[in-house]
Each structure stands twice: as structure tokens, then as C-alpha cells.
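Reopening this one. Same input as before:
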Amino acid sequence: MAGEDGIVSGMAGRYATALFELALEEGALDAVKADLDRFDGMIGESADLLRLVRSPVFTAAEQTRALSAVLDKAEVGGLAAKFLKVVTSNRRLFAIREIIHGFRALVARTRGRSPRR
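Same output, byte for byte:
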């Protein structure tokens, strides 16, 4: 398993590892990483999106509706969009930045580089 050596841990690590393994199987590492990087950048630039991601006051349905609109506008699709929607429906969107960091670390390790935050 990709996360066995402790590069990622906890709940965020399990999600990152699952996405990494699926993206690797599908040959979609670069596409998923690009989409996650774009989404992470959007969170960093938008206080409203950060609030949607972090706030427990939104229901999973409300987060999913809003997230779908954001992903459509940002042209984030495929495996990354499906994954983000699963994370949202599982009420784990609050951890998405840590999940993305873990995913980046796994990708970097496969390429022999250090991950970036």
C-alpha cells in the first residue's frame, strides 16, 4: 500500500492514498494532480469557498450542490471531481487541503521529488 511508510497518515492519509492508487491504476496522476492543485488554489483565493469547505453548518447536500457549481466553473472533472464529491458526501470536505497535501506527497515520492504545500 502506498501509505505504509508513513508518508501520509490518519483519515486524510487514507483518502489521499485511495485516490493516489486509483489515479495510478487509471493512468490519471497528472490530470488528478492538476485538478486538485487548481481546486486548492481556489480555496486559497476565496474566503467563501474556504468557509464552504471548513464550516460544519452546511449540510452535505448543500456542500455538494455548491461544490458541483464550483467544479463546473473551474472545469475540474473526471476522477478528481468524483473524488471531491465523495469526500463531500462523506462529510470530510473539511480535510480536503490535508488530503491534497498527502496526494501531492505520494505523487512526489513516485517521481523522486519533495512535495510542495
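So the earlier flakiness isn't reproducible anymore. For the record, Residues 10-26 form the longest helix (17 residues).
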